[in-house]
Amino acid sequence: MPMKKMTLLGGLTPARFLEQYWHKKPLLIRQAMPGFKPPMGRDALFRMAAREDVESRLVTHFNQQWKLETGPLDKLPPVKKKEWTLLVQGVNLHDDAADALLREFRFIPDARLDDLMVSYASDGGGVGPHFDSYDVFLLQAHGRRRWRIGPQRDLSLRDDVPLKILRHFEPEQEFVLEPGDMLYLPPHYAHDGIAEGECITCSIGFRAPAFQELGEAFLQFMADTIDLPGRYADSGLKPAARPAEIPQPMLAQIADQLAKVRFTEDDIAIFLGEYLSEPKATVFFNPPAHPLTQGAFTRNASRRGIALARKSQMLYRGKHVFINGESFVAGRVDKRHLAALADQRYLAGAVVADASEDLQEALFTWYQDGWLIIGNDSEK
Ligand code: SIN
Ligand code: CO
Fold first, then answer.
1. Which of 176, 206, 236 is the last residue of a domain?
2. In terms of Cα–Cα distance, which of 366, 300, 380, 379 is closest to 338?
3. What CATH number is attached to the domain comprising 275?
4. Are residues 220 and 162 in the same domain?
5. Are 160 and 213 contained in the same domain?
6. Ligand 1: which residue has its CA nearest to atom 5?
7. pLDDT, tens digit, for every residue of 282-292?
8. Cβ 119 under 6 angstroms from ligand 1
9. Paired residues of 121 in beta bridges
10. Could you read off the pLDDT of 99-144 as tens digits, one per residue?
11. Secondary structure E strands in the chain
């Protein structure tokens, strides 16, 4: 079946977009989201920036001086003052409309989607010419922003400012984005967006962990997983001529034992699922204030279905299912239901009613933890 063409991608199918643009070249999509309204207004965004559990930054460029302040930010410059920007990360974790917007991009796997950042800029505001290490969709949400972009080779940065700002920015193209317009940029593509009047921009961000970071986390995971019974012994020990030297037979025996540390693709799948579904440090779930008993939960959920909470990340691979940093092995039928829950982020009541006792128990625990809710998306 041919994939649906999307206004979101300017009439391209996701397959075409990924083949021709993803990681390769920028794409400007006029009216990717016709009639688009920002998930939240300026004042709601300012209130979010003051919260302890929200990551935010303030960038000012007053009197030609770049300054950076990290949140929580309870005092912001007046909106009439020019050249400042507020950037709020992970808005999707706290707001349903922002969550729904991020999920429009699920033609890219959840394992790669990071978060929705929303920025507010006063007239002339921006974060300076820079590049990012990740792909990004920059969706204009309110007001106008002028983007200058270029594929530049010289990625050297200024060392006299507290932000990542290119030393020699050489833009090649320039566009003014209106609400609903969107610009896709591949990693390392230089860009500078300047607000023309006050504006709000949404950035759909992706995650691409560094191999070093993955390797270190994997070794920690393996430390909890390895099983090496027994203890060093040397029944054939000879008198030491050089007492400080580590004996060769000791080295050989330990090398044999350490060579037993092996990992399979299954270990890697479990590691990756736990790693990628682990909530960020700022994420706290909201368990129900008056939780139902397990019986009442199952009766209710069997009628109304269940939905993953906004902050839940659920992934799967083979027989393994991962939710919020924990992994499970499920039987074939349970696995099918759990995969449906992960893909659709919703499971119909009839399926819950039909689920095994084990699965109903797991769902109840997740409900108590605030990882899922009874009802469908619109009731979140
Ligand atoms: C912004 O929204 O102001 C910055 C987005 C970016 O350039 O990465
Ligand atoms: Co950027």
1. 206
2. 366
3. 3.40.366.30
4. no
5. no
6. 203
7. 999 999 999 99
8. yes
9. 85, 199
10. 999 999 999 999 999 999 999 999 999 999 999 999 999 999 999 9
11. 27-29, 56-62, 65-70, 84-88, 113-121, 136-150, 173-177, 182-185, 190-206, 306-308, 314-317, 320-323, 326-329, 346-347, 372-374
132 Cβ closer than 6 Å to some ligand 1 atom: yes
The answer on 63 and 174 residing in a single domain is yes
What is the domain count for the chain?
2
Query: How remote is the CA of residue 152 from the centroid of ligand 1, in Å?
Result: 18
155 and 213 part of one domain: no
CATH number at residue 162: 2.60.120.650
**192 shares its domain with 78:** yes
**Nearest CA owner, ligand 1 atom 1:** 119
Q: Which atom of ligand 1 is nearest to the CA of 195?
A: 3
* Residue pointed to by tokens 């860009």: 191
Tell me if 245 is assigned to some domain: no
DSSP letter (8 states) at residue 289? S
Q: 307 and 216 share a domain?
A: yes
**Half-sphere exposure (Cβ direction) of 308: Cα atoms closer than 13 Å:** 22
Considering every ligand atom shown, identify the ligand nearest to the alpha carbon of residue 147 and give its number: 1
Residue 193 Cβ contacting ligand 1 at under 6 Å: yes
Would you list the DSSP string of 301-343?
HHHH-EEE-TT--EEEETTEEEETTEEEE--HHHHHHHHHHHH
Answer yes or no: do 176 and 213 share one domain.
no
Find the 191 Cα to ligand 2 centroid distance in Å.
Answer: 6
Give the range of the structural domain holding residue 311, as residue numbers without chain letter. 209-225+261-380
User: Is pLDDT at 5 greater than 80 in this prediction?
Assistant: no
